[in-house]
Amino acid sequence: MLVLLPPSETKSPDGDGPPLDLTTLSTPDLTPVRAQLVEALIRLAADPPAARAALGLSPARDVELARNAALCTSPTKPAVERYTGVLYDALDVRTLTRAQRARADRRLAVGSALFGLARATDAIPAYRLSAGSALPGLPTLRALWRPVLAPVLAASGELVVDLRSGAYQALAPVPGAVTVDVLSERPDGSRTVVSHANKAHKGRVARLLATTTAEPDDVVRVRALLRRAGLHVEHDGATALTLVLPAA
């Protein structure tokens, strides 16, 4: 099972790993696009006004430009520890047992605008690039990633549970992937999309899937696993699951 996580805009700035070496990352088929984007971000960082415009940053966030400028020299850390924020707080890999972490390292990957796909153990630096960014002189990220990333994901041979946001799913859709939507149900039975807490609940789902000793190989077994954990999960008969939560 491969659990695809969305990245986060916020990232841990530290690390004690060696500088980025693209040849050591998983999925070497993605190396040429990764190298093209790394080079483009470093070059762009030398022109702060253009970089701010391309990345949607204010001058107050120039620290992000400095991180991009240092992509090839700054320390790295495992991808699953690099990203921070609500989803990753709920995933909370630092509290996993050794056996749980080994399973999580095998199963978790992050959909990344810069790296395409970063497996949990891939050593990456802090950076700033979002799925909707448009880099000067380059095609859209969707045009760059889809031809190389979509075949990689389609040929993984694993059940894919895709928890990425829509923008990252668009970079490389995965036909037949299990998806999870989060809805809030009011006492009158009406439902609304969960906004802020959506990431936290997906983080909890990711933790369950990453650490289970079971090996679910289809959507029915994923649903059963989540239900055994006490979650109210509905299945529409295809590969979409809906996590229903009582309204706060």
TrEMBL record:
One Gene Ontology term from the biological process aspect of the record: response to hydroperoxide
GO cellular component, one term: cytosol
Matches recorded under InterPro entries: YaaA
Region (Disordered): 1-21
Protein name, entry field: Peroxide stress protein YaaA
